[in-house]
Amino acid sequence: MNTNVLIIGLGLIGGSLSLALQRNPDIKIYGYDQDEQSLMMAKKLGVIHEIVNHPKEAANCSDYIVFATPVNITIELMKDLPKWNVSNTTVITDTGSTKKLIMKQAEQLINEGYQFIGGHPMAGSHKSGVAAAKAHLFENAFYVLTPHPATKPACLSKLESLLAPTKGKLVKLTAEEHDQMTAVVSHFPHLIAASLVRQLKEKNKVSPMTKHLAAGGFRDITRIASSNPVMWRDITLQNRDKLIGMLEDWQEEMETVKNLLMHPDPERIEEFFSAAKKFRDDLPVNTSGAVYTEYDLYVDIPDYPGVISEITGYLAKDEISITNLRIIETRTDVFGVLVISFQTPKDRERGEACIKTYTTFDTYIS
Ligand SMILES: NC(=O)C1=CN([C@@H]2O[C@H](COP(=O)(O)OP(=O)(O)OC[C@H]3O[C@@H](n4cnc5c(N)ncnc54)[C@H](O)[C@@H]3O)[C@@H](O)[C@H]2O)C=CC1
Ligand SMILES: O=C(O)C(=O)Cc1ccc(O)cc1
User: Is residue 235 lining ligand 2, measured as CB closer than 6 Å?
Assistant: First the structure.
């Protein structure tokens, strides 16, 4: 018998979850989105099995309901859920980036006999929409669950077995712990990235060449400033308290930096950078963390016309998929570095072997 899942919100996360859950052939996915285009595209791309025009249409036959909508919309929909004729055995969850207010709303549902367990797959990207959905998005990433103290172990196990095909690492946290930690590693960095870009915008008014000098470092640190502003508005509003606390700590940190500059001491300045480098270099690398990871392979290439299509041709011949290509440096007569990104370490290994078979180019992994 099929297990029915209703996914509400068919964007990057709802779409990716839907694709991952379909690795279990017994799963049937009903999809709802208020945006008709997303709904049609989800069906056309095979992201969902069946369209519903209102959650009510599938809510009463669903074993699971997943809210993958922006966090404030999720709260509004949770208020509406009691009108949908949902069974008290249906497991309800969400994918929101914040948990405290969602779990507060869940309390009402739980008191009325519904089963709700908060969820947050800690993987994503600055992209949104169903077209960016990928079945492997959550692989090796932490997938946080926030059960309520009253959640029955059987209900939690039921949700864990649904999510197993995501290949995410399921961990349980309280909503409070979740919102504190995600403020540090995700929400606050988005504020800083946006502020850095806003600062560049202002400085650029005075010296219009500035933005053209924005090199890799600036782009790396501000990539997330290209995320969906509406989604981040809502996350910021829901995790305001923790973010204000972070901002106060940050202001202290900036005071420390200012002091370093006001009373320059080369040793202390070096120590400032080296302490950060050491901790950054020691961050765990075996998880994809909060970002969609690509596995980069560096190839030293000579600068002659057609060299890139030659390499991609070899990879295509051996049926090895790549996700991205970029050149770090090319000058006439000097070797440039081609960076090829793969979806998995295995693909990268095969890619490296393929390039070594067909060329004499040096390859390495950073
Ligand atoms: N983007 C990311 O990297 C991550 C996002 N999240 C969380 O997952 C949730 C979804 O985020 P994304 O998929 O990135 O956003 P998205 O913008 O790609 O998708 C959201 C979808 O919800 C739909 N929607 C909006 N209002 C609706 C309503 N009233 N009824 C039905 N559908 C509605 C939109 O039309 C859209 O298709 C958010 O709560 C976000 O905080 C969690 C992990 C990562
Ligand atoms: O693109 C990135 O680096 C992200 O930060 C993705 C992301 C966005 C929201 C989340 O709740 C989790 C991960």
Answer: no
Q: Is 186 in the pocket of ligand 2 (CB under 6 A)?
A: yes
Instruction: Find out whether the beta carbon of 363 lies less than 6 Å from any atom of ligand 2.
Output: no
What is the topology classification, in CATH, of domain 295-364?
VC0802-like (3.30.2130)
Beta carbon of 125 within 6 Å of any ligand 1 atom: yes
Taking the CA of residue 22 as centre, how many other CA atoms within 13 Å lie in the half-sphere pointing to its CB? 21
Pocket test for ligand 1, best of 33, 101, 145, 226 (most atoms within 8 A of CB): 33
Q: Give the pLDDT confidence of 168-182 residue by residue, as tens digits.
A: 999 999 999 999 999
Residue spans of the domains in the chain: they are: 3-173, 178-281, 295-364
* CA gap 187, 180 in Å, rounded: 10
Provide the whole-model pTM.
0.83
User: What is this model's ipTM?
Assistant: 0.98
Instruction: Render pLDDT for 152-209 as a digit per residue (tens, 0 to 9).
Output: 999 999 999 999 999 999 999 999 999 999 999 999 999 999 999 999 999 999 999 9
What is the atom index within ligand 2 of the atom nearest the CA of 122?
12
Domain 178-281 has CATH 1.20.140.10: no
CA atoms within 13 A on the CB side of 308: 14
Q: Retrieve residue 209's tokens.
A: 């060449």
Superfamily (CATH) of domain 3-173: NAD(P)-binding Rossmann-like Domain (3.40.50.720)
